[in-house]
Amino acid sequence: MYDIILAFITAFGLTYVAIPSIISIARKKNLVDEPGERRSHHVSTPSLGGIAIFSGVIFSIILWTPFTYFADLQYILCAFIIIFLIGAKDDIDPISPKLKFMAQVFAAFILVFTAKIRITSFYGVFGIEDLPIIWSYLFSMLTIIVIVNAFNLIDGINGLSGSIGALICCTFGTWFLMIDKVELAIVAFATTGAIVAFLYYNVTPAKIFMGDTGSLLLGLVCSILAIQFIEQNRILENSAYYVRSAPSVAVGIMILPLFDTLRVFVLRIMRGKSPFSPDKNHIHHLLLDTGLNHMQSTGVLVFVNVFFILVSLYFQYLGTEWLLFILVSLALLFIFVLLLLNTKKKVPSKA
């Protein structure tokens, strides 16, 4: 327990202290994110906050993790470094989506094949239980890549990606703490500590953004925690902390980035565009269109994500497929309400 508290404090302290220096250097070297048509900010802002987050997370994990119980940590740290390098390169000098995707595949490959972080069962979804080894590898890599990109895509307004990421890490971390998986709890709470420190500088008016370095790393951490949540739960069937419908509960915990990514991808494909082509159709853009500011929109979406977590935990007894149906239905209802509010706002009132 003390290791987990110290991991949180260490990551928080290092990130908090590092960010002012990074802001100063970024401004001197003109390493800033400029306002633009697809941007939601109006002032040139440094976008290297992910460097401080990475430093806080890595230092804290290495310092406080009991290596004797976490033999695969070296492989996880290797994946972190790959994501950090490609994210930092993109923040300083933008790279092609293809190269960024290849780096994500490489990081996912390390996690799945060497750290053995993979999904081995569908829990009966579509009548599938245990996955053949090759499909387990492929599906696990796909899951990691999707979650990593999901966090990258929701990083569009002040405080959003960090707040949602901290909520998800804290939720998974609490469960790992209860089942005595101290090493995974340290990873979760070290990340939470670094994100909380970053959020101090990211609330409106934002002094710094996390950039791809931060969002990609946050997505990678959450993908590891989600897969380990599903897999560790399989051996706890007789435990008081066993979670029924674990895959759907994991989706519920990460509903906002996952559903928003799926939604914008489908919309882009339906319009004949590449699913990776940027636009302003994300959920946070819809909230901004209703007249809310950045922090109000972030607050609404954090509240919505908390609501989905509670729904997932309360209705877990329904089974994986039914719970997933309920979660998707509620998410669609939320989008419908947002679209309805925007439609009413755009209709001119009669004199």
Task: Please give a structural write-up.
This protein is mainly alpha-helical and 351 residues long. It has one domain (2-344). Helices cover 70% and strands 1% of the residues. It has 13 helices and two strands; from the N terminus they run αββαααααααααααα. Strands 1-2 form a two-stranded antiparallel ribbon. 44% of the residues are buried.
Low confidence ranges: none
- Continuous helix count: 13
- Largest sheet features: 2 strands, antiparallel
> Secondary-structure element order, as H and E?
HEEHHHHHHHHHHHH
Feature tags:
single chain, 351 residues, mainly alpha, two-stranded antiparallel ribbon, 13 helices, 2 strands, 70% helix, globular
Describe how the helices and strands are arranged.
Layout lengths: L1 H27 L3 E2 L11 E2 L2 H16 L8 H20 L4 H17 L19 H22 L5 H19 L3 H21 L8 H23 L12 H8 L1 H16 L12 H7 L4 H21 L5 H27 L5
Antiparallel strand pairs: 1-2
Summarize this, please?
By secondary structure, the protein is mostly helical. Helices cover 70% and strands 1% of the residues. It has one domain (2-344).
